[in-house]
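Our consortium's second objective concerns turning raw sequence data into structural hypotheses that experimental partners can test. To show how far this objective has progressed, the report includes one record in full. It was chosen at random from the queue rather than selected for favorable results. The single chain below, 131 residues long, was entered without modification.
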Amino acid sequence: MNSIFEVAHADKILNRIDKLTTNSQPLWGKMNVSQMLAHCSSFQYVAMGYSTPSRSWSGIFFGRFAKPLFYNDKPLSRNMPTIPDILITSQKDFEKEKENLKEKLITFQKKGPTACTERPHPFFGKLTPEQ
């Protein structure tokens, strides 16, 4: 599985972000490009422990069993629900969100696995830095 902690993989992600424009259209989902950039930034906050969305009842009961279905080399299924706390519905500034996400990814990559929170994921529960 690719890892953001590998410079080459982090660079691929950053290059994909750099190719986005305000006219980029979603391939799936309902958020526009600016909202998706903010959404991805919110995930970085969760991964680093700066944000701690509450665990849903479904996550508490089913998350640990579902974890192997998601943490593998397969891409995520389209139109899956997201954590309600990081669903972005307000309008966002594209350039600001683009730079914000890039900064968070670079910081996370440079700090390495020790930057990962030990708090449980809102749905999957306990995750390792590799996950």
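The partners drew two points from this record. The mean pLDDT is 81. The CA atoms of residues 28 and 78 lie 6 Å apart. Both points have been shared with the crystallography group to help prioritize constructs.
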